[in-house]
Write a structure and sequence with these properties.
Shape: elongated
Strand order of the largest sheet: 6-7-8-3-9-10-12-11
Bound molecules: iron/sulfur cluster
Structural class: alpha/beta
Low-confidence stretches: 336-343
Distance between the termini: 92 Å
Number of helices: 23
Strand content: 15-25%
Largest sheet: 8 strands, mixed
Mean pLDDT: 84
Length: 621
């Protein structure tokens, strides 16, 4: 078996920063054979360039250090070399082309002086011989009039020409390894092709191994033999280029490939990866892509996936490809954020065609009746007695009935403010009763409640900023103070209140404004589902209309689903897509609003409908 030119084994390159140790490269392993190109891809900040700088031994300064692993050049560790030996390798056996040649070419020396200096230092050539080789290299990289250009300064050359000079300098000593860090990013598209073609041509001639660092997937597709996809300082997938493009496995790789604009996705919206690469100073204990991954499972957040061989030469670090993990109880799909879900589902489809968000099966909430000295249980009040409900995405289900029928208890049981006595509840495909404490916390951010009396549900001693910020802090702790405040202001504006209300107390507002604060508090944690428990019953009709309009527009914008608990059938007719009529703890009639209002079948429903006061037709002039 041939020895690879370069082997990077479990490399860890860290930086000391004021915010703690940044694990820029955190266990990277790769190897490149003679004449081969290995591409490292990924978003900015994922550790590609630091891997390259570590390979050429350019990270160890005041802040950066190699914390572990090894780098072997033709089987020999280069980490144990002294500074003089390292200098002899740098620019000679390992050389590098940077994105912006102007930063690595010295502006006060001619390009001829710069290349001959390298030839004299590493090859021991005399001036005349160095000049001859330099001009030959300039010709090889297709610089026009190489002899005349020899005495030119870098600033007098175009970007493309400067990059050719860099390539000439990098390859003049026939390096074993050439590192090309975003070699074409700063160039025009027409020049990009030529530069890459040139690198390939010279690689074929010299047999150098190439480590190509880029975020340009098209470049990788056309030029690399092997690819490593980096994320959060690690390689999360690695495969021969032809496998990777045909069969990407890691959710991050799939997203990266789908985000490339091209002929195949013309006219369609490009995929985006929500959020940002996590800070290298504060990686979560589990998968570093968790929080951005649309296939995330409950266990991903706290169990780190290992890079394991999946198929011949293709390795992936994702629990989806780990049979042991998938067979464990940790492989429960994780809930996603409301806005993402709203965007992913058609909430304008007819109600019977929309996806289910919440399903309640045989929900029971019984209260024990205790009597006697020893408070013995002698029976139960069956407040909720085996009800079934289904709320579709972006829709409103009204739960109606008179006071004491059990509708508020049902709402509180669904949102787990009361522990139900039996039945099951599915939210977003996940059974809530099977969730861990952590999962329940996430469910609570996705399912919110707005109460009838905003005054009693808002803490009178807290200002608006804290009332709204408190929920965000608990349910979205990853947000900074500034992000929390931004989200608070944004939400207040969404409900028609401005930033000037931030420092005011609840008693300084009217009933309608207080209900807006209640809605803002629920909305701020990005919910998918809101229970409105008699949310407009205490308001004047004019204010009630404003709040109902607000709730409808929020539903339209964010795809939020409502369970609207009310006794007011006028409100139901206006806002609900479906209605469930509750009587004595049970659902007695259930159906689409229009149908149920037109043809009620249950006597109790008929009685409720008959009780709606009839109004004369509104005047039009
Ligand atoms: Fe997504 Fe989980 Fe795989 Fe990470 S381990 S990429 S979060 S599915």
């Amino acid at each position: 078996m041939k020895t690879p030119v370069i082997e990077i084994k479990g490399l860890r390159t860290y930086f000391r920063t004021p915010r703690g140790v940044a694990k820029a490269v955190d266990g990277v392993t790769l190897s490149i054979n003679r004449g081969e190109t290995f591409a490292l891809v990924g978003e900015s900040g994922c550790g590609k360039s630091v891997t390259a700088l570590s390979a050429i031994q350019l990270v160890e300064n005041g802040a950066g250090y190699i914390a572990g692993g090894d780098i072997l050049l033709h089987g020999q560790s280069i980490l144990t070399l002294n500074e003089k030996e390292k200098r002899a390798i740098r620019g000679n056996r390992i050389s590098m082309i940077f994105q912006e040649p102007m930063t690595s070419l010295n502006p006060v020396f001619t390009i001829g002086e710069q290349i001959t200096e390298v030839l004299k230092l590493h090859q021991g050539l005399k001036s005349t011989e160095a000049k001859r080789v330099a001009v030959e290299m300039f010709a090889k990289v297709k610089l026009p009039n190489p002899k005349e250009l020899f005495t030119e300064y870098p600033h007098r050359l175009s970007g493309g020409m400067r990059q050719r000079v860099m390539i000439a300098i990098a390859l003049c000593c026939k390096p074993d390894l050439l590192i090309a860090d975003e070699p074409t990013t700063a160039l025009d598209v027409t020049i990009q092709d030529e530069i890459i073609g040139l690198i390939q041509e010279l690689q074929a001639e010299l047999g150098s191994a190439v480590l190509l660092i880029t975020h340009n997937m098209a470049l990788v597709y056309q030029n690399a033999d092997h690819v490593g996809v980096m994320y959060g300082g690690k390689i999360v997938e690695t495969a021969p280029a032809r496998f990777l493009f045909r069969n990407p496995l890691h959710p991050y790789t799939i997203k990266l490939l789908r985000s490339i604009p091209g002929r195949t996705n013309r006219g369609t919206e490009l995929e985006t990866i929500p959020g940002a690469v996590p800070a290298a100073t504060s990686y979560a204990p589990g998968c570093r892509f968790s929080g951005r991954c649309d296939r995330e499972m409950e266990g991903c957040e706290f169990k780190e996936p290992e890079l394991k061989e999946h198929d011949f030469e293709q390795s992936v670090a994702c629990h989806l490809f780990d049979p042991g993990f998938m067979a464990s109880g940790l492989a429960v799909p994780k809930m996603q954020t409301g806005r993402k879900i709203a965007a992913a589902h058609d909430i304008t489809a007819p109600i019977d065609k929309r996806d289910e968000l919440l399903r309640v099966e045989k929900l029971k909430t019984y209260y024990p009746v205790r009597k006697g000295l020893f408070r013995r249980t002698v029976g139960y009040v069956k407040a909720v007695d085996g009800i079934d409900l289904e709320v579709k995405r972006g829709s409103t289900l009204a739960l109606v009935g008179e006071s004491g029928c059990g509708k508020t208890t049902a709402g509180k049981s669904i949102i787990r403010l009361i522990q139900p006595s039996g039945g099951s509840l599915w939210f977003n495909g996940t059974e809530i009763s099977k969730l861990s404490e952590r999962g329940l916390k996430r469910f609570r951010s996705k399912a919110q409640i707005i109460f009838q009396d905003p005054y009693s549900s808002l803490n009178p001693r807290m200002i608006v900023k804290n009332i709204i910020g408190e929920g965000i802090k608990t349910l979205a702790p990853e947000l900074s103070k500034k992000e929390r405040l931004d989200r608070t202001v944004e939400t207040l504006e969404r409900v028609g209140l401005g930033a000037e209300t931030l420092n005011r107390y609840p008693h300084e507002f009217s009933g309608g404004q207080r209900q807006r604060i209640g809605i803002a508090r629920a909305l701020a944690v990005d919910p998918e589902f809101i229970i409105c428990d008699e949310a407009v019953s205490a308001l004047d009709v004019s204010v009630q209309a404003q709040i109902l309009n607000l709730l409808k527009s929020i539903q339209r914008d964010f795809g939020i689903s409502y369970l609207f608990i009310t006794h007011d059938l006028g409100v139901v007719e206006y806002i609900a897509d479906e209605v469930a009529v509750m009587f004595n703890g049970k659902i007695v009639e259930y159906g689409p609003t229009e149908e149920l209002f037109k043809n009620p079948t249950n006597d109790y429903t008929k009685k409720l409908l008959d009780a709606i006061p009839a109004l004369p037709p509104a005047k039009t002039d």
